[in-house]
Amino acid sequence: xxxxxxxxxxxxxxxxxxxxxxxxxxxxxxxxxxxxxxxxxxxxxxxxxxxxxxxxxxxxxxxxxxxxxxxxxxxxxxxxxxxxxxxxxxxxxxxxxxxxxxxxxxxxxxxxxxxxxxxxxxxxxxxxxxxxxxxxxxxxxxxxxxxxxxxxxxxxxxxxxxxxxxxxxxxxxxxxxxxxxxxxxxxxxxxxxxxxxxxxxxxxxxxxxxxxxxxxx
Length: 217
Prior knowledge:
The chain is α/β, with parallel strands linked by helices and 217 residues long. The chain folds into 2 domains: 3-114, HesB-like domain (Hypothetical Protein Aq_1857, Chain: A, Sandwich), CATH 2.60.300.12; 133-204, Fe-S cluster assembly (FSCA) (GMP Synthetase, Chain A, domain 3, 2-Layer Sandwich), CATH 3.30.300. It contains 4 helices and 11 strands. The strands form 3 sheets. It has a 4-stranded mixed β-sheet with strand order 1-8-7-2. A 4-stranded mixed β-sheet has the order 4-3-6-5. The chain has a 3-stranded mixed β-sheet with strand order 9-10-11. The longest helix is centred in the middle third of the chain and has 18 residues, at 133-150. The model is unreliable at 213-217 (pLDDT under 50).
């Protein structure tokens, strides 16, 4: 059951039912569930499995309701409570206000999760951030940003610092990638500004006409 993450237009903000299911997504899930041996006792489990710096990643599966863990959040969706949804306890908070939906017209994919929550890759990292601003920026790049970009074959390099502005280039799989501008704006910039309050701007100095798949020509 393919799923992607997209921003949510509205939120339900109901911690007892963190993820809503649209009518069209409900019909899709019920159609798939009908092929199970015991559909009435089969639930949809949705869990956050990680992130790609700017969005959460999810796993969706159908399983027997009896297989839910003791601390899982279990609730129903649909006008007649047709679908039981299981959300693991460690995923519930970051899914509050999310909606399971179908993609927009002419957009490929099976299901999408529109989630107003975004990951914070700095969580759990113990960074001293010693030294001057350039050294601090490099520590954030080395310990938080580049490990996340490595999964896409990319990396970010600090070119220099102009006052309170960091000048960064993106290389590897991120150079010439159509998503790199969003990654820089929504991922790298946010992480650096959150970690280093004295930093006011991150400038992209990447030559996007180069690389394996240039998108600026």
